[in-house]
Amino acid sequence: MSNTVPVSAHQAGLVVLTRQQVVAWRNAVFVLFGLSGVAMASWVSRTPSIRDALGASTFQMGLIVFGLAVGSIVGLTTSSTVLARIGSAATIKWSVIVSGAGLAVTGVGATLAMASVVIIGLAFFGLGVGMCDVSMNVEGAANERQLGRTVMPLFHAMFSGGTIVGAALGAGAEYLGISIAVHLGAIGIAMIATVLVAVRFLQPDPAAAAVAAEDAAANQKIVDDGGSAKSGWRSRMAIWRDRRTLLIGLIVLGMAFAEGSANDWLALAMVDGHGVDNATGALIFGLFVTAMTIGRIAGVYVLDKFGRVPVLRVSAALAGVGLVIVIFAPMAWLACVGVVLWGLGSALGFPVGMSAAADDPRNAAARVSAVATIGYVAFLVGPPLVGFVGEHVGLLNALLMVLALVAIAGIVSPAARKPADLATGEPAVSDRPRA
């Protein structure tokens, strides 16, 4: 008796994965997301020490961190081309190797008080992180398709868990007086060792392989008929003119802006705007992170039960109500209620946007790259913009910009609906191992 379930037509003739293979694949993606969180938090947790070691002013530190931003943008924008050439598993492996090496170089540069070395290390770290971010989301979306249920929010929750581990390791390194070079070097080596094991459990996406074969056959027919084959690079760039891509990008932009602004300004906004002390401000930020993590874990259930569009609309509404409460609440305890709603509402926009961008395996890498780039622009540009406006009107009032973008994300949420021609595809998963 056959141990496989029927597959959609475009998957016919391809090897069907066993349930054990797909679960191992899923677990490997969990590890990769967690690893990315550990890496990012390891850098962030040592920035005060790096600043002190370099003797850098706030302005100079901003220029140093600009190396990370440039590397990230280059990694994001070139990721679809690299993915098309060498595949997601190889891209993940090499991007983590580059980011791990960059993190180690950053630690050495800081310990030697050489700002130029730190900038170079951060540029390579950002390059690897940006490229890995797109690759992980493409890989996670492919695994989600094969499992036949929502898991992307859990992948992003694992990233959040990784940041907690990375921050704890950074705090421990500070407490024990471990040098920046030893700490970041050890994290970099651990990243490389872990990815070399994890990528062995990744699987080729049957749907992507099928459409690639279809495209190759179509291109060959064009050539046989005397025409010119389609340019893969042009097809990937054309995704930026696609209406659905841009609308999904708006969803991610609004929700990433909400998350990034909270990361950078929530604690200070509570201190300056609601009169709490510094320790309480830090605790309130922890409340936001906790609410967002819970929202991502619970999102797996609510997305499968209600679908993307209703969940995104409710998420935008929760984040919007939470922001209004935080901005206008007359009492700090009431603002804390708003912080919880803000965190819950911000939880699912980015992971759902990544899933929606990767719906069609034909252009998943290019669309995820474009949407992720838009999201990273929000993370990189949004917080400084809030700070600039807040300097003139106050941080709480500056958060009205975040409220406006969250409202736009809610309005365009129907763009995340799975296209009708892809909604009935069945996962290529076997319930039992092959004999």
Question: How would you describe this protein?
Answer:
This protein has 435 residues and is an all-alpha fold. It has 2 domains: 12-204, MFS general substrate transporter like domains (Growth Hormone, Chain: A, Up-down Bundle); 244-422, Growth Hormone, Chain: A (Up-down Bundle), CATH 1.20.1250.20. It has 17 helices and 2 strands. It has helices at residues 19-45, 47-54, 58-86, 88-111, 115-147, 152-176, 180-198, 206-224, 232-238, 243-274, 278-306, 308-328, 332-346, 349-357, 364-393, 395-398, 400-411; strands at residues 17-18, 429-430. It has a two-stranded parallel sheet with strand order 1-2. Helix 10 (243-274) runs antiparallel to helix 13 (332-346) and helix 10 (243-274) runs antiparallel to helix 14. Mean pLDDT is 82; it is low at 1-13, 215-223 and 424-435.
Outline the secondary-structure elements.
Elements: E1 17-18, H1 19-45, H2 47-54, H3 58-86, H4 88-111, H5 115-147, H6 152-176, H7 180-198, H8 206-224, H9 232-238, H10 243-274, H11 278-306, H12 308-328, H13 332-346, H14 349-357, H15 364-393, H16 395-398, H17 400-411, E2 429-430
Parallel strand pairs: 1-2
Helix pairs in contact: 1-5, 1-6, 1-7, 3-4, 3-5, 3-15, 4-5, 4-7, 5-15, 6-11, 6-14, 10-11, 10-12, 10-13, 10-14, 10-15, 10-17, 11-12, 11-13, 12-13, 12-17, 14-15
